[in-house]
Give the backbone structure.
Amino acid sequence: MSEETLLGGDQEKFEFFLKEDKYRELLSSMALEGKTSLTIDFQDLYAYDSELAEKLLEKPEEMLQHFKHAAMAQLFIEDPDYAEKIKEVNIHVRNLYEYTPLREIGAKQIGKLIMIKGIVTKVTVPRPKITRACFECQRCGERQFVIQTSNILRLPVECIHCGKKGPFALVVEESDKINTQEIWLQETPEELPPGQLPTNIRVNVYDDLVNKAMPGDNVAVTAIVSANVRKSRGTKLSTCNITLEANHIELLGKEPETIPTLEEISKIRDLAKDPFIHKKVIDSIAPSIQGYEDVKEGIMYLLFGGVEKRHEDIRIRGDINILLVGDPGVAKTQLLKYVASISPRGLYTSGKGATGVGLTAAVTRSKDTGEMTLEAGALVLADKGVACIDEIDKMRDTDRETIHEALEQQTVSIAKGGIVATLNARTAVLAAANPLLGRYDPYKTMAENINLPVTLLSRFDLIFVMRDIPDAEADERLADHLLRLHSGIGRQPPIPPDLLKKYIAYAKTIKPKMTEEATKRLKDFYLSVRKKVYELPNSPISITPRQLESLVRIAEARARVALRKEVTAEDAEAAILIMIKSLRQLGIDLTSESPDIDSLLTGKPKAMRDKMATIIKLIVEGQREMGMVEEKWLLEQLENAYGISKAEAQRLIAQLMREGAIFQPREGFLKKT
Ligand SMILES: [Zn+2]
């Protein structure tokens, strides 16, 4: 008798393990849920038999076979009909004791079962893979099966009927297939050593794990590390490529991993009691950058965020978006990088798209395999965090089309190359843009100053102009500040960055509610501005519900900073004040007689806007009947029915095209975007 039989084989050990109530129940409910796999908690197995569990980590290929057979045997006891039907049970193992950092995967792990975590950056279109190929002999018509284990199709050696060496034809319909997909994981910011670029790793995914994870998801993956010998011009090299074969995928939450300890929580609570806590937080944001108090106050609101609201099918974002427009050399980039470093799930990127993917998402064809892949851009990767986008005015055209949706609905929809998907982009955006002509011109409107459409500008809750204005007093302060920095004294932030990061994470768990008083303040302010506008003859509606939503978000964020569950009148006042300041920098004075936000953002007087509205109306009506509108016809209509001269109409049409409101589907025709 062999030792194996004496001690009981591994399969038997697994069978005994599966007789525990938890797994018997799981097995017997498989049919009901239409499942073909059983998920095992590794820690259950370890508690049951640590030696067996260790062996599973060491020799996963072999041990999983035993485990599968054991599961099948047990399923025959629990539910013989279903066992007969599915013929095979897959075993997924979750919850190993530790994660292997992505950058440590190497020779030591080959052949082992490991658990890794990361952010999914891209996925390929799923495709079926033949696992057992059916071949038909072209001489006698006999069919036979060949099990396929690699990527190269294995043919039968000879016909089992006539003995000839083919030719054989593959019968795809009769072959056994499973779905496969490749996904790429990127190191999470928490695992990333400071100053290093994140590591990426490819994982092969099969069967019921296909499409389980989408770009932007945070996942824990159990996988077997395998190695293929590399090839160079037909010769095999002695170095290997490592690939991971997924065994289980689990979606992780996106809650920040910077969870404060009990001691830190009490420190945070003490800080929050300070009546000047807001000032303290503002002073702790990028302390090496002098001045810009209003900008930093805005950033504080962005970091803490408002409360997301869901009413049936409507969702109002709680995230606050801020745009910084400024002269070169005003520390915008440092500010952005600082914010990315202290926000949970913070990410810094440039609109120019150094990563090659851009801001939203892209469908690309892989160079080596030719497969279509869906890749996440910055806004998707920063889901539930903060995306800091430098030089947003230089973003690509593909991003210009999708960024509106990303900023307002906080999703990115893709329908291209056989891929149809909606990815989450629930992120606060801190963006920076350079003025079109090098320096910000206060005598021009915002739209004239930067290369961004007005429709996009309106997605930002606050816009700040950071100007490098010569100012003797400020210069002296800056000089002193720089000298202090160089002498190594520096300015110590009242709250150290590490603690601030935890403070933010902790504060975000609070969902402050508007008090009656706060609601009244915001409503009064909103109505008074609207009223001023209405009282003017022919006045455009210039303050929109969008700005009211922004005010609510900012007030909520301010309450969060003080860890309050209620939004007070003081919070509302502060929100109004920062909004007025932000608008005033754009040349809009809400305290003046005729605040006209549209006109100042767009630089268009009402008459001009009316004409543009007429053009769009005609295009929409026309394209309903004809799909698109002939420009010649449009110009005639405008001249005859509305008295707009051809020259003026052409100018307005060109302007609308620049703003992205309409486009030319082909020469001489127009369509609304
Ligand atoms: Zn034959």
